[in-house]
Amino acid sequence: MQTPEPYPPPEPEEDWLASQPRPARSFEDLSGLGMRLTWVSGLILAISAFTDWYVGSGPGPTTSVIAWHTGGLGKLVLVIGLAVLALVILREAGIDLPASVPESLVVIGLGALSTIFVLIRLISIPDEFYGAGRGIGIFISLIASLLVIAAGLLRAGEEL
User: Fold this and answer.
1) DSSP code per residue over 95-148
2) Is 135 contained in some domain?
3) What are 62-100's pLDDT values in tens digits?
4) Number of structural domains, the chain?
5) Confidence (pTM)
6) How far is C-alpha 126 from the geometric centre of its chain's CA atoms?
């Protein structure tokens, strides 16, 4: 007489793997996202200084005013975009900031400063461009500035 086995035979491994749910994305899968977003948003911010911030049309041709010609704030937006790019280039070259200055905090600060500058120009059109409307470039600059802040926050999460 044959004794029954106490446990059922194991199922083939392929069936067991197929029946398991896929795990959600872990944070480790997103580890390089902060660095990529930093250089992309910095590049967009720097380029946006050469896009139209104000557009005017009148009896003559349609005029477009780039950020470079809006005064010091437009030039500072370009400098901030280049500073964000310089941070990424230095990091890739192996040059790090001192340990007492977190790089993510610097990126967040640059993004906040850029956001303030763009918001000033968004709200207050310079007198010499009175009658001109806001162009698409100023909104691109605002979105890029906010993306720099988001990139800094992502990098802060990666540094932990």
Assistant:
1) ----TTS-HHHHHHHHHHHHHHHHHHHHHS--GGGTTPEE-HHHHHHHHHHHHH
2) yes
3) 788 888 888 899 999 999 999 999 999 998 898 888 888
4) 1
5) 0.77
6) 28
